[in-house]
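Replying to the earlier thread about multi-chain prediction with a worked example.

Input:
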Amino acid sequence: EDQVTQSPEALRLQEGESSSLNCSYTVSGLRGLFWYRQDPGKGPEFLFTLYSAGEEKEKERLKATLTKKESFLHITAPKPEDSATYLCAVQDWAGNNRKLIWGLGTSLAVNP
Amino acid sequence: GAVVSQHPSWVICKSGTSVKIECRSLDFQATTMFWYRQFPKQSLMLMATSNEGSKATYEQGVEKDKFLINHASLTLSTLTVTSAHPEDSSFYICSARDRKWDPYNEQFFGPGTRLTVL
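Result:
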């Protein structure tokens, strides 16, 4: 059964303190892995799509990487405005390939 | 680009009434839209997949007669919560995929609708 596990559940950083969020997945065949950011009371905001192992994408202070078993979201020198919940989701080749399988998210707090 | 809107952003209604929520893709066409429900401090729960011109596909445990979905055009899907009760109070979020790359591309989300049933 497809499964997505995110860790840690919550993370508190000081401004400028770099760290990484983890998304481990189990699927029959990965079609795509997606990272989103969600602020309280708002819909998720799309960040990245990764399709194959070894792929990397960057946007400002964020960098997403992908292996055959997991993805990392690296946050370099975070600022308080990076505080949010980061969600990871995967899409499988098999079964209902229109659905995303979601992780529970990592709640990130960046203190000034 | 890739903007999805929802209306209303919040609604309060009395128990037993029906509420309609609209989801629009503003700058792209969407063959497929999705409706999610999210409880406080929990992840997204897919309720149904809305397909333009055909019936929606509901997830297990979601009552299709209670949550009516209509995807009448390539830019609009609606969710109607019929005979709403307090347990239906939640945050409802829609998403859409650009039909140019469907079905293997990212979903873009609306801002969500907060429903409170008294």
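The longest strand of chain A covers residues 30-38.

Feel free to reuse this layout for your own posts.
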